[in-house]
């Protein structure tokens, strides 16, 4: 009996430790973007507890200095210009170990245009494909939105719908899903492939939607957990924002990454509730902004970002622009880009 109790204690303790580790926030910076022609300025701050030590142990570009309280700064005698490299890798060390980060010169586009599942509609490309992502970059979108689930064997899968290629994503292994053929010879891409593609440039960002799993809260959290950890493992924080219809997933992302940009898609919370849970903003169907023409203004007044989806008609795009919505998600990014060009 004592042996059984001992085994139970060990098993329970290990499960508790595992859960505690998975719930711990990741080491993050509150900013990964570097402005041009700035000397001696603060880049960002690491989220270390007061009194904890952090040290800069690798900086091949020899551009940065780290203060004792976790502020990362550009050296006073260093200048980052358009002619210098645009990606900078550093490694820091804390009591928990070492972690590498990539900092990016800020040439990112800010034109409000978010290509919904990539720029696919007018380019004979599949939604959420590498081709649709590359087209969104090529035409000059601020961001390219895409969707992720977990396969039956817990691998991150890109798909808007719960089914793709006649297979239920959450009931199918990743190996089977990655064999699915898309348009124009494309294959279903992995999240790693998507991130690798976006990191080849510093103008368009990713908007990663964590899908609300049909298997409940824990599965929603697991999708969020897996996606965020891949983003961090590949040092893609500078390129990646998050959206989701699952409030559980949104809270899990915030728990893991205290500085990530997270916009909530479901209009079932008050603006004050979202602010209290440290959400970055709202990402609502454009009909909500048409119904309440002061919604964007109210959100911005308490520091929330605003995004409207999925805005495909010219008149609705114009309405969203008139309300000064921060981002506009559309299947027709080319039309929105034309409208914006005409306003210049």
Automatic annotation (TrEMBL):
Pfam families for this protein: GDPD
Domain GP-PDE: 111-340
GO biological process terms on file: lipid metabolic process
Keywords recorded for this protein, A-Z: Signal
GO molecular function: phosphoric diester hydrolase activity
Stored InterPro entries: GP_PDE_dom, PLC-like_Pdiesterase_TIM-brl
Keyword Signal among record annotations: yes
Signal peptide: 1-19
UniProt-recorded name of the protein: GP-PDE domain-containing protein
Organism ancestry: Bacteria, Pseudomonadati, Bacteroidota, Bacteroidia, Bacteroidales
């Amino acid at each position: 009996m004592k042996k059984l109790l001992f085994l139970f204690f060990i098993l329970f303790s290990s499960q508790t430790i595992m859960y505690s580790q998975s719930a711990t926030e990741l080491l993050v910076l509150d900013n990964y973007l570097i402005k041009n022609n700035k000397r001696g300025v603060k880049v960002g701050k690491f989220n270390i507890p007061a009194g904890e030590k952090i040290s800069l142990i690798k900086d091949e570009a020899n551009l940065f200095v780290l203060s004792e309280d976790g502020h990362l700064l550009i050296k006073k005698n260093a200048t980052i210009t358009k002619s210098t490299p645009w990606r900078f890798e550093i490694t820091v060390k804390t009591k928990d170990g070492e972690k590498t980060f990539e900092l990016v010169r800020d040439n990112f586009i800010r034109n409000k245009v978010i290509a919904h599942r990539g720029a696919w509609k007018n380019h004979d490309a599949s939604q959420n494909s590498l081709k649709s992502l590359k087209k969104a970059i090529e035409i000059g979108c601020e961001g390219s939105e895409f969707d992720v689930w977990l396969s039956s064997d817990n691998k991150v899968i890109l798909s808007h719908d719960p089914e793709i290629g006649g297979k239920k994503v959450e009931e199918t292994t990743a190996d089977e899903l990655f064999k699915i053929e898309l348009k124009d010879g494309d294959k279903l891409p992995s999240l790693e492939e998507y991130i690798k593609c976006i990191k080849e440039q510093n103008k368009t960002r990713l908007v990663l939607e964590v899908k609300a799993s049909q298997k409940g809260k824990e599965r929603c959290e697991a999708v969020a957990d897996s996606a965020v950890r891949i983003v961090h493992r590949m040092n893609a924080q500078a390129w990646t924002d998050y959206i989701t219809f699952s409030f559980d997933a949104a809270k899990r992302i915030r728990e893991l990454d205290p500085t990530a940009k997270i916009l909530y898609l479901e209009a079932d919370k008050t603006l004050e509730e979202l602010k209290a849970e440290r959400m970055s903003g709202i990402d609502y169907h454009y009909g909500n902004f048409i119904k309440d023409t002061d919604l964007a203004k109210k959100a911005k007044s308490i520091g929330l970002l605003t995004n409207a989806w999925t805005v495909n008609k010219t008149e609705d795009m114009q309405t969203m622009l008139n309300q000064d919505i921060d981002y506009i998600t559309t299947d027709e990014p080319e039309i929105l880009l034309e409208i914006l060009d005409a306003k210049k």
